[in-house]
TrEMBL record:
The keyword Repeat applies. The keyword Amino-acid biosynthesis does not apply. It comes from Rotaria sordida. SUPFAM superfamilies: RNI-like (SSF52047). Coiled coil: none annotated. Pfam families: LRR_4 (PF12799), LRR_6 (PF13516). This is Uncharacterized protein. SMART domains: LRR_RI (SM00368). The lineage of its organism: Eukaryota, Metazoa, Spiralia, Gnathifera, Rotifera. Keywords: Leucine-rich repeat, Repeat.
């Protein structure tokens, strides 16, 4: 879904779907004008999602702290899929 101007509201809707999704492993949100609010929604969703192992958020407006948290959650999912 790169270059779709999803923004924070769109990220919230995607996060709602990600919470209970059990099949999606990769999500490309490259250059979608997602900010910290959208990143927080995605991080909240990843607390429940265990299958997403690749999340591309390059060229968005996400502060380092939120990017780091999202990376930690994705790494956790990668470790779970190895087990």
């Amino acid at each position: 879904l790169p270059f779709n101007q999803i923004g924070d509201v769109g990220a919230q809707h995607l996060a709602d779907g990600l919470q209970h999704n059990t099949t999606l492993t990769t999500l490309n949100l490259y250059n979608n004008q997602i900010g910290d609010i959208g990143a927080q929604h995605l991080a909240d969703a990843l607390q429940h999602n265990t299958t997403l192992t690749t999340l591309d958020l390059r060229f968005n407006r996400i502060e380092h702290i939120f990017g780091t948290r999202l990376k930690e959650l994705i790494e956790r999912n990668k470790q779970r899929t190895k087990s």
